[in-house]
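hi! just following up on the protien thing from before. the input was this:
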Amino acid sequence: MSASTDLKSRNLWKILFGISLALNLLIVGAFGGAMLRVGKGPVAKHRTSGYLYMRALNFEDKKVLRKKLSGNKDSRKIIRAKEHSSYSSAVKILKKVPFDRKAFEDLLDEQTKHSKSKPSSARVALVTQIENMPKEERLIYSKRLEDLVRNKLK
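and the predicted 3d structure came back as:
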C-alpha cells in the first residue's frame, strides 16, 4: 500500500512540475513577444531598414520576392561553401605564428564586400517587384505601408 502512495505522490510532483514549467514558458514567451511587438526589444532595434517595405507586401508578392532572394538550392550550396571556406581561412590565419594582420584584414574586407552585396540584391528585387505592380495594387501597397509606419511610430 505504501509503494502505491509513493508512486502517486511522485506522479503528482511530476504533473505539478510540468504545469509550472509550462506557465513559466508562457510568461517568458508573452513578455518576449510583447517586447518585439512594441518595438522596444533588442531584436526589434536591429531590423533592417527594408523590413516595413517587405511587411507591407501582400502574401503573393512576399512569396515571389522570397523565391527571388533565396535562389535555387545549388546557388545556396555554393554560397554556403564559400562562406565556410572564408571562415576556414580565418581560422588558419588566426592559428599562424606570428599573426598576419594584413591577411586577416584582407579577409575581413572580402567578407564585408560579400555581406554588403546581399542587401543590395534584396533592394533591387524589391524595387523590381514594386515597379511591376499595377497602379491600383501599388496604391494598396502604399496604404498598407502608411498604416505600418503610423502604428510603428505610436
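Residues 41-46 have pLDDT under 50 and may be disordered.
Residues 1-46 form one domain.
cheers
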